[in-house]
Amino acid sequence: MRYFGPAGIPERCKGYEDAFEYLKRIGLNAMELEFVRGAKLTTKRAEEIGALAQAHGIKLSAHAPYFINLNSKEKEKIEKSIKHIVKTSEISDAALASPVVVHAGYYSGKSPAEATEVITANLEKCVEEIEKNGYEVKIGLETMGRVSAWGTLDEVLEVCTRFKNVVPVMDFAHMYARTNGKLKEKSQFEEIVSKFERYNFGFMHVHMSSIAYTSKGERMHLTLEQSNEPDFRIIAEVLKGREYPITIISESPVLEIDALKMKKIIEEL
Description:
The structure is a single chain. By secondary structure, this protein is of the alpha/beta class. The protein has one domain: Divalent-metal-dependent TIM barrel enzymes (TIM Barrel), CATH 3.20.20.150. The protein contains nine helices and ten strands. Strands 1-10-7-6-5-4-3-2 form an eight-stranded parallel β-sheet. Strand 3, helix 3 and strand 4 form a beta-alpha-beta unit. The longest helix is centred in the middle third of the chain and has 21 residues. It starts with a strand and ends with a helix. 47% of the residues are buried. The mean pLDDT is 98.
C-alpha cells in the first residue's frame, strides 16, 4: 500500500474536516499532523480528528515540536524535550496518528558516538513513559539535513534497533543536503533503502521535497518545479517495487500539489 499526503493542513483549507474532504477528493490518503510548536489539542479533539480522518480514508502521522533536543547541554531543556515527546505521543495516540516524527537534537559539542549514547538514554525515558501510559504510537527518528544536527542514516538506524517502537523517518531531501548533493545515482538510493531494509521495520515513513543546501547542509525546502535536487524520479524507481507499506509526506512549499506529483510519478513508472 502507498500513502501520499501533505505535512499539515493545505493552505486552502479551513480546518481538519475541510482538509480531509479536500485530500480525499483530489486523490490523497495521508496527512501529517503538525505539532511543531507544541501539541496543544485536547485528547477529545484529537479523538474527533482521528475519527474524521478514518471516515475519509486518511492515514495520519504526527510531527513533534521542532525545539526538541535530547542532547542539550542544559538538563532543563532535555526534561522539557522528553515532556514534549510524551505529550505529542498522547495526543497522537488519541488521533490514531503514528509515527510521531522527532528531530532528536544536535551534537552540542559532543562526538557523534557520545551524542548517540545521550540521545539513546533520553529516548529510553520517553519510551518508558509512552509504554507506561499505553500510548500505541511509534516514535519516528528523522534523518536530518544540517551537518550540526544529530541524525545521519547510520545514527538513526543504530538507535532504532535498540527499541521495539522506534523507527526511522527517511527524509531523502535531508540526506541529499547533508551530503552536499552527492546522492545522484540510483545505485546510491538503492544502497540507502537496502540498509533500511536490513532491520525489517515493516513499513517506511518518508519525508520528501526538493531542497536548497550549503556546505552546512539543509537551507530550505523547495518545490519539485523549482528544483530536481534530489531527483524524485530516481527515488521513485527505487521505492516502486517494495512490498511493504510506504507513506510519502510532502514537505514542499506547495504541500498537496507536490504530493500529487509524487503520486503520479510513482504510478506512471
